[in-house]
Amino acid sequence: YWNPIGCPGMASDAVATAMFDIAVVRGIGVPPKYAQRICNNHGALLAVDNHVGPKTLGAINALDPAVFIRDFSFMVEQGFRSIVDNNHSQSIFLHGWVNRAHRLLTLIRT
Fold first, then answer.
1. pLDDT over 90 for what percent of the chain?
2. Which end of the chain has fewer CB atoms < 10 Å from its terminal CB, N or C?
3. 94-103 and 65-86 are packed helices; what angle lies between their axes, rounded to 10 degrees?
Protein backbone atom coordinates (compact mmCIF):
# COMPACT_ATOMS: atom_id res chain seq x y z
CA TYR A 1 0.00 0.00 0.00
CA TRP A 2 2.80 2.41 0.88
CA ASN A 3 4.67 2.48 -2.42
CA PRO A 4 1.80 2.35 -4.95
CA ILE A 5 0.22 5.51 -3.54
CA GLY A 6 3.47 7.47 -3.57
CA CYS A 7 4.13 7.68 0.17
CA PRO A 8 7.94 7.48 -0.15
CA GLY A 9 7.91 10.75 -2.13
CA MET A 10 5.68 12.69 0.24
CA ALA A 11 7.38 15.49 2.15
CA SER A 12 5.08 15.08 5.15
CA ASP A 13 5.06 11.85 7.14
CA ALA A 14 1.64 12.83 8.47
CA VAL A 15 0.18 13.13 4.96
CA ALA A 16 1.78 9.84 3.95
CA THR A 17 0.38 8.13 7.05
CA ALA A 18 -3.13 9.46 6.38
CA MET A 19 -3.00 8.30 2.77
CA PHE A 20 -1.65 4.88 3.78
CA ASP A 21 -4.29 4.40 6.48
CA ILE A 22 -7.15 4.92 4.07
CA ALA A 23 -5.50 2.88 1.31
CA VAL A 24 -5.54 -0.11 3.65
CA VAL A 25 -9.25 0.37 4.33
CA ARG A 26 -10.56 1.54 0.95
CA GLY A 27 -7.95 0.34 -1.57
CA ILE A 28 -5.08 2.08 -3.30
CA GLY A 29 -7.24 4.05 -5.75
CA VAL A 30 -9.24 6.04 -3.23
CA PRO A 31 -6.56 8.12 -1.44
CA PRO A 32 -4.99 9.35 -4.71
CA LYS A 33 -8.44 10.37 -5.97
CA TYR A 34 -9.12 12.32 -2.79
CA ALA A 35 -5.64 13.88 -2.89
CA GLN A 36 -6.12 15.00 -6.49
CA ARG A 37 -9.48 16.56 -5.66
CA ILE A 38 -8.01 18.35 -2.65
CA CYS A 39 -5.09 19.70 -4.68
CA ASN A 40 -7.47 20.85 -7.42
CA ASN A 41 -9.60 22.60 -4.81
CA HIS A 42 -6.46 24.53 -3.86
CA GLY A 43 -5.56 25.58 -7.39
CA ALA A 44 -3.80 22.59 -8.97
CA LEU A 45 -4.93 21.35 -12.35
CA LEU A 46 -4.59 17.60 -11.94
CA ALA A 47 -6.38 14.84 -13.76
CA VAL A 48 -8.33 12.81 -11.22
CA ASP A 49 -7.03 9.43 -12.33
CA ASN A 50 -6.61 7.68 -8.96
CA HIS A 51 -2.82 7.40 -9.39
CA VAL A 52 -0.03 9.37 -7.75
CA GLY A 53 2.42 10.48 -10.42
CA PRO A 54 4.98 13.28 -10.31
CA LYS A 55 2.40 16.06 -10.82
CA THR A 56 0.14 14.76 -8.06
CA LEU A 57 3.07 14.26 -5.73
CA GLY A 58 4.30 17.80 -6.40
CA ALA A 59 0.84 19.23 -5.73
CA ILE A 60 0.47 17.25 -2.49
CA ASN A 61 3.90 18.39 -1.30
CA ALA A 62 3.06 22.03 -2.13
CA LEU A 63 0.11 22.07 0.27
CA ASP A 64 0.36 22.77 3.97
CA PRO A 65 0.09 19.31 5.58
CA ALA A 66 -2.48 20.53 8.10
CA VAL A 67 -4.72 21.85 5.33
CA PHE A 68 -4.34 18.64 3.36
CA ILE A 69 -5.16 16.42 6.34
CA ARG A 70 -8.22 18.48 7.32
CA ASP A 71 -9.58 18.27 3.78
CA PHE A 72 -8.60 14.60 3.48
CA SER A 73 -10.37 13.70 6.74
CA PHE A 74 -13.52 15.42 5.50
CA MET A 75 -13.40 13.56 2.16
CA VAL A 76 -12.76 10.25 3.89
CA GLU A 77 -15.79 10.75 6.13
CA GLN A 78 -17.96 11.70 3.16
CA GLY A 79 -16.74 8.60 1.31
CA PHE A 80 -17.72 6.37 4.21
CA ARG A 81 -21.13 8.04 4.44
CA SER A 82 -21.60 7.50 0.71
CA ILE A 83 -20.98 3.78 1.16
CA VAL A 84 -23.77 3.64 3.73
CA ASP A 85 -26.08 5.79 1.59
CA ASN A 86 -25.65 3.30 -1.25
CA ASN A 87 -25.85 0.18 0.90
CA HIS A 88 -27.70 0.52 4.19
CA SER A 89 -26.45 -2.88 5.36
CA GLN A 90 -23.07 -1.17 5.87
CA SER A 91 -24.50 1.26 8.44
CA ILE A 92 -23.28 -0.99 11.24
CA PHE A 93 -19.74 0.13 10.37
CA LEU A 94 -20.42 3.87 10.04
CA HIS A 95 -19.59 4.88 13.62
CA GLY A 96 -16.18 3.21 13.46
CA TRP A 97 -15.48 4.56 10.00
CA VAL A 98 -16.32 8.12 11.05
CA ASN A 99 -14.07 7.73 14.09
CA ARG A 100 -11.28 6.57 11.78
CA ALA A 101 -11.77 9.63 9.55
CA HIS A 102 -11.70 11.95 12.55
CA ARG A 103 -8.64 10.22 14.00
CA LEU A 104 -6.70 11.38 10.94
CA LEU A 105 -6.90 14.88 12.40
CA THR A 106 -4.59 13.76 15.22
CA LEU A 107 -1.81 13.65 12.63
CA ILE A 108 -1.84 17.44 12.43
CA ARG A 109 1.05 18.88 14.39
CA THR A 110 0.10 22.01 16.25
1. 98
2. C
3. 170
CA separation for the pair 81, 7 (Å, rounded): 26
Residue 110 pLDDT greater than 60, yes or no? no
Are 60 and 15 spatial neighbours (Cβ–Cβ below 8 Å)?
Answer: yes
| Predicted pLDDT of residue 109 | 75
Query: Taking the model in full, what pTM does it have?
Result: 0.95
Instruction: Tell me whether residue 42 is exposed, middle or buried, using C-beta atoms within 10 angstroms of its C-beta: 0 to 12, 13 to 18, 19 or more.
Output: middle
Please answer whether residues 56 and 6 qualify as being in contact, where contact means their C-beta atoms are separated by less than 8 angstroms.
Answer: yes
